[in-house]
Design brief:
The protein is of the alpha+beta class and 137 residues long. 37% of the residues lie in helices and 30% in strands. The chain has helices at 18-34, 56-67, 106-117, 127-136; strands at 3-12, 38-44, 47-54, 72-83, 94-97. Bound molecules: flavin mononucleotide.
Length: 137
């Protein structure tokens, strides 16, 4: 089945505790398993970055639900394109908490997206991987 990869960034409405993040993670993992969605969720200094992978109609519905979640705001889709493979085939939702690390990556993220849009090479098989590297770095 053909799949899309959707990447968005958003801002937490308040500082997320380890328990807050665990709650999101547990729910996401079990829900996503039922709808054949995989991906990865990063939390870093008040920012979320999430990669969602699955059938396009499924992602559209899921993103709508996630976007309206009151725990975050200003969600912005950076990337939503067909993908020939899953970057996170083994994770219904991986979660990485990078809190307290430098998180002011928003401009850089947007720059990478612009590069993707204008077909400039960013030197990776998957834009999602590039984004994640950037976010972690
Ligand atoms: C940053 C963030 C990421 C989330 N990611 C997912 C996800 O990948 N899958 C999911 O089902 N819910 C995710 N959620 C939770 C949804 O917004 C929503 O609370 C949940 O899906 C409701 O599940 P229910 O319909 O089973 O009650 C996320 C929430 C936040 C704040």
């Amino acid at each position: 089945m053909s799949i899309n990869q959707l990447v968005y960034v958003s801002q937490a409405v308040r500082k997320m505790s380890v328990d807050d993040l665990r709650e999101i993670h547990v729910k996401a993992r079990s829900n996503n398993e039922l709808i054949d969605v995989t991906g990865s969720l990063f939390y870093n200094g008040g920012w979320f970055l999430q990669v969602l992978e699955g059938p396009a109609p499924t992602l559209a519905k899921l993103y709508k639900k996630i976007e309206s979640d009151p725990r975050h705001k200003n969600s912005r889709v950076l990337y939503n394109e067909p993908a020939s493979f899953r970057t996170f085939p083994r994770w219904n939702m991986n979660m990485t908490n990078l809190d307290e690390r430098q998180a002011d990556k928003y401009d850089e993220l947007v720059e990478v997206i612009d590069a993707i849009r204008s077909n400039r090479k960013i030197g990776s098989a998957s834009p999602a991987v590039t984004l994640l590297k950037l976010f972690k770095g």
